[in-house]
Amino acid sequence: MAKGGITTPKPLIPVAGHPLISRVIHTAAKLRASSVACIVNAENPAVVRYLEESSWPLPLEIIVRTTPNSMESLFSLAPLLSDEPFILFTVDVVTGDQTVERFLDRARGLGDGQGALALTDFIDDEKPLWVSVDGGSRIVAIGGAARGSRYVTAGFYYFSPEIFAMVDAARAKHLSALRQFLGFLIDHGYPLHGIPVSKTLDVDFPGDIRKAEALLMEIGEI
Length: 222
Fold this sequence. Notes:
There is one protein chain. About 30% of the residues lie in helices and about 25% in strands. The protein is an alpha+beta fold. The strands form four sheets. Strands 5, 7, 8, 9, 10 and 11 form a six-stranded mixed β-sheet that branches.
């Protein structure tokens, strides 16, 4: 974004008039989430101020911490996510609210202790995370081992708190990214499923803002 002339912190970049992080929080509220937990880089005080000074439709908890990688960002949220299953969003994903709702309905139907990754066959990402599934939706490979498959991750996930039992083991392996942790879970038998969803977009470049707004207009959410 900065190379394209946009200096606004990514969570505050407006898409169709609403900052990305606001879109995620309001999506969670429409899904009847009990609360939202956000981790914010300590180098982004403007994001913290925005979250603290705005009114939200559900309880909001904020952790301000600069972590070395995306895996540790998730682990930092563990104390707030220990009681019930949760949806994890990346802040830059844009999709329809109904898309997320349908994903959640299917993920909840998997049963206790199961996890799910939203998958898309619309690949418009410079570093897509490839995923292969078997005939029953169980994920069998992720990352390089799944390169060239039909699906990539769509930017939101459903987990049970049981994943945090693997924190120490993942750190002992010196893993350094959320995608590596997901592969680690699969290798250790944690049941992760892939659920195909409608079109999603990641807002990574200035031109993606226009694409995201066009998607929202196409599905009637503008």
